[in-house]
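Dear colleague,

Thank you for sharing your sequence with our group. We've completed the structure prediction you requested, and as agreed, I am returning the results in plain text so they can be pasted directly into your records. Please verify that the sequence below matches your submission; if there's any discrepancy, let me know and we will rerun it promptly.
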Amino acid sequence: MKKFTWFFILLLWVILPAYSDAQTSGISGKITDSVTGEMLADATIRTANAGTQSDEKGEYKLNLAPGSYDVQFSYIGFVQKTIRITINEGELKNLNVSLYENATILQTTTVTAGKYETPLAEATVSLEVIKPSLIENTGSTTIDKVLDKIPSINIIDGQVNIRGGSGFSYGAGSRVLLLIDDLPALQADAGYTRWSDVPVENIEQVEVLKGAASALYGSAAMNGIINIRTGYARSVPETKAAIYARTVTSPADASKKWWHTPPVEYGAQILHKQRFNKLDVILGGFYSGGDQFIKDTYDRYFRINTGLRYRINNRLSIGINLLLNDGESQSYFLWQNKDAGAWIGDTNTLSNSRKLNYFIDPSIVYFDKFGNKHKLLGRINKADNRNNANQSNSSNTYYGEYQVQREFSNLKLITTAGITETFSNIEAALYSNQKFSIENRAVYLQLDKKFGSRLSFSLGGRYEFNKINVPKNFLRDSFNTEAKPVFRSGLNYQLGRATYLRASFGQGYRFPTIAEKFIRTSFSNFQIFPNDTLRSETGWSAELGLKQGFKIDDWYGFVDVASYWTEYKDMMEFTLVAGSEGIGFRSLNIGNTIIKGFDIGVAAQGNLFGLKTSLFTGYTYLDPKFVHFGAKEMNSSSNKEENILKYRFKHSFKFDGETHYKKFALGASVIYNSDMKAIDNVFNAFIKDVKKFRDEHNKGFTIVDLRVSYQVINSLKSSFIIGNVFNTEYSWRPGRLESMRNLTLRLDYNINKKS
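Please find the predicted structure tokens below.
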């Protein structure tokens, strides 16, 4: 904990000046929702030299010296407003402001691209925004099921792949960083994503950044960012609850049905948000139980989350979020065969796990009298995973970040700077029951400059230090300690009223995880070997994109077209090896790779035959290759003829749409992926029926989901969802089939005490 001395010093430095203020001139007033009249707490009020936030009543006061100012009023989810004012000596001007919710998709406010609030249309990188309504409407109980519906994103057995930047790495070494409220949430030892840690019952917005983001967010953000922004209490108390049950129908091939009574998965969730004067309180819970579509598999867990935020005054607020996730799961890595055993696991690959995970996240936000915004963020994460296959692991992670942001209105410049530190202790059977520790320190700086009213430019850099402290009996080498700088830049030019051209370049960097370097375990008949000489991978990604907004009659939305080029040097992947220790997998630097492609996306809202309708859709083309496709690359791949990286789809198409008629809502989702041309050769050679299945299913697959909901009363909605309507037999990765047709019944209760 001594590594966080700076964190607590800065905490005191921020708090102590919070009460000193001698100026008497300035502005004051209330910030409200222009439609509902609701008071908006924590709205940001800023000028070039000063800043504050509205309090729990939506009221604010900003002390200013005499002069003229452009005052900016902003609130996430609402259209930003700027007002020109003049203040005289001793004058306290009353200025009440009403903000409108985002009227168009282009006005959606995001924070991930530059760590400050900016409209989606003006971002210098590709961003996707997911609203909580999509999670609820599709009946998703984990956020990965929703992310899979987003163009350019594929999730293979829980691992995220954005624009082909990752393949399938057996649960270790993610190139996409998961953030929950701007804080890293990947597991410390392997860098994998545990989706059940994401509180779907309390999500305000999900922001997905496509492309290298290491300059702002560090090593694990080499391929992109998924930032989960949780909800907050408003002036009107809110209670939401839902229950659901999911079962399956017989497979298209009835001989593969393994049950007499269909398995049923069920669960419930609840959330309450309320403001008590200066204190915001959030309480949420989630439970999942029952059995899944593969015989003898389940994921039973409960999650509790709470958030507290207290406003000491208009400039200073403190908060703490807590999350506890406890449960047990059972799964198989491989099937028995492609026929009667397609949805029955190979007992040699059985894994039974007991998991306990918790997060403690303190935070401080402070606006000083000079216009600087200070943030102190912390996270304590405990993960304890007990496994019956000698694969248990336990870790303690401590994260701290100090960030300062200043807007120079006269220069149209926003500067964001920060320092971060992470320290983790890890002990695991996976690593020969040895104790390891990880240290990460970084400093970053981001400049966002506006030239005139149309051109936005961003420039950022980060210097990052990584170290793995290994036990005394392990080989020590130079690859366990490393420091690197990474940079990014981007621009966005508004060509027309709703036409935005963007270009970006970002360097990527990923330091190996402990799992990739030191893991030693087995599954089925294969070993997983360590590689303590594994080197970090570096790379860059560049993008040219055009976002065109449109309004046609009652329809409005945007079309987004982007072309991108990504290169990796010393790319890391688990690769089949054979030697004196036997046959198995080892994480290796496989060489240099190039991933080129383009995507086209459309998001729109409007009236279809007089019915309120919304949709988003997109197509993605990938060309992922080795720079050099030689004997080594051919031998590890199932495809000897074509130079293509493993576990990628060259073509994919996504669609989701919903229309409303009176109290009914009808929706549909479509996912198409072309044939996966290459996998690890070992699956074809040694895993039963994998080659036969792939030969029989070599045209890709299309999955269609349908849903209907009915608003029983204002506070109660019932939904019925049919997943995989056409009962397609398909696989995201070898040796495991996805669900046959499945049926979900869900009831949602939502009460707003104001109503």
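Summary note from our side: The two ends are 48 Å apart (CA to CA).

Kind regards,
the structure core
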